[in-house]
């Protein structure tokens, strides 16, 4: 029996349970607002959002693999394409594009034209250092770590700070293959 | 005169801990070798204590995966024996059968390994294992009370699993 082919982002997005987009956006906004009140420092909030994203990412990867049926990607280029076309579509309903590959193929940019997290949001002057969508960088980092890739994800362009699109830079630091966890003498 | 129902002719079998099932047992491991779940429905013979049993099972699969990948006649890339591969890469075995049982195996790229031991006439269990992976996602990965990397203690997951495994022919 041939294994099932991977499903496209649209097909999965249509079949999963969805929540109201405004509810999602406003809930996220409330979380960021509360973090700002609790932590006060913008840098701390950025770090906390990244950590929250990481915790989400380590669980999200299983849902992604189960629903999308993709097999292991051959190289990092394929990984980035899958994240942009299937991953973002499946979870956020938006399609991203991958650009700006560097010479070794270990660093690329994922560009989002449309970002549901930032509808209705404006950053006040007191929060200029805030990466509002930093949870997304944590999610990508967490998920990739569970598939043996250590990466670094940073924001290059952010529309809330005046740029024209959202651009995330994903850099592959190394592949960490599975090791036999038990010592031989036990 | 008192009659003890059924006990002279054929003693009733001991009541199993979970309701009878045609599968023998099931293991779920994560990428670090931690046994997340062990379910037993029908296992008359226990030879090792649970820790040794889990280690043996994990070690067996780790070696089998490595061996089957190295022996692959269709693959061009031959690494050294013993060099670990990324889960899901290259060829991956999915079951082996003996005269008394069949062991079916599935590994996801995230390192979750699902092993199901059934009777030898079971057909191909790849689709059921995928379904069990979906159950894992719904009841365990999405469960806020579950810490990833620890053993699974979720009644709903156990019930859903028992029900599903019972329905596999």
From TrEMBL, chain A:
<dbReference type="GO" id="GO:0006888">
    <property type="term" value="P:endoplasmic reticulum to Golgi vesicle-mediated transport"/>
</dbReference>
<comment type="similarity">
    <text>Belongs to the TRAPP small subunits family. BET3 subfamily.</text>
</comment>
<dbReference type="Pfam" id="PF04051">
    <property type="entry name" value="TRAPP"/>
</dbReference>
<dbReference type="InterPro" id="IPR024096">
    <property type="entry name" value="NO_sig/Golgi_transp_ligand-bd"/>
</dbReference>
<keyword id="KW-0333">Golgi apparatus</keyword>
<comment type="function">
    <text>May play a role in vesicular transport from endoplasmic reticulum to Golgi.</text>
</comment>
<dbReference type="GO" id="GO:0033106">
    <property type="term" value="C:cis-Golgi network membrane"/>
</dbReference>
<keyword id="KW-0931">ER-Golgi transport</keyword>
<comment type="subunit">
    <text>Homodimer.</text>
</comment>
<keyword id="KW-0813">Transport</keyword>
<dbReference type="InterPro" id="IPR007194">
    <property type="entry name" value="TRAPP_component"/>
</dbReference>
<dbReference type="GO" id="GO:0030008">
    <property type="term" value="C:TRAPP complex"/>
</dbReference>
<protein>
    <recommendedName>
        <fullName>Trafficking protein particle complex subunit</fullName>
    </recommendedName>
</protein>
<keyword id="KW-0256">Endoplasmic reticulum</keyword>
<dbReference type="GO" id="GO:0006891">
    <property type="term" value="P:intra-Golgi vesicle-mediated transport"/>
</dbReference>
<dbReference type="InterPro" id="IPR016721">
    <property type="entry name" value="Bet3"/>
</dbReference>
<dbReference type="GO" id="GO:0005829">
    <property type="term" value="C:cytosol"/>
</dbReference>
<dbReference type="GO" id="GO:0005783">
    <property type="term" value="C:endoplasmic reticulum"/>
</dbReference>
Automatic annotation (TrEMBL), chain B:
<keyword id="KW-0931">ER-Golgi transport</keyword>
<dbReference type="GO" id="GO:0009933">
    <property type="term" value="P:meristem structural organization"/>
</dbReference>
<dbReference type="GO" id="GO:0005783">
    <property type="term" value="C:endoplasmic reticulum"/>
</dbReference>
<dbReference type="GO" id="GO:0006888">
    <property type="term" value="P:endoplasmic reticulum to Golgi vesicle-mediated transport"/>
</dbReference>
<dbReference type="Pfam" id="PF04099">
    <property type="entry name" value="Sybindin"/>
</dbReference>
<protein>
    <recommendedName>
        <fullName>Trafficking protein particle complex subunit</fullName>
    </recommendedName>
</protein>
<comment type="subunit">
    <text>Part of the multisubunit transport protein particle (TRAPP) complex.</text>
</comment>
<keyword id="KW-0333">Golgi apparatus</keyword>
<keyword id="KW-0813">Transport</keyword>
<dbReference type="GO" id="GO:0005794">
    <property type="term" value="C:Golgi apparatus"/>
</dbReference>
<dbReference type="GO" id="GO:0030008">
    <property type="term" value="C:TRAPP complex"/>
</dbReference>
<keyword id="KW-0256">Endoplasmic reticulum</keyword>
<dbReference type="InterPro" id="IPR007233">
    <property type="entry name" value="TRAPPC"/>
</dbReference>
<dbReference type="InterPro" id="IPR011012">
    <property type="entry name" value="Longin-like_dom_sf"/>
</dbReference>
<comment type="similarity">
    <text>Belongs to the TRAPP small subunits family. BET5 subfamily.</text>
</comment>
<dbReference type="GO" id="GO:0009555">
    <property type="term" value="P:pollen development"/>
</dbReference>
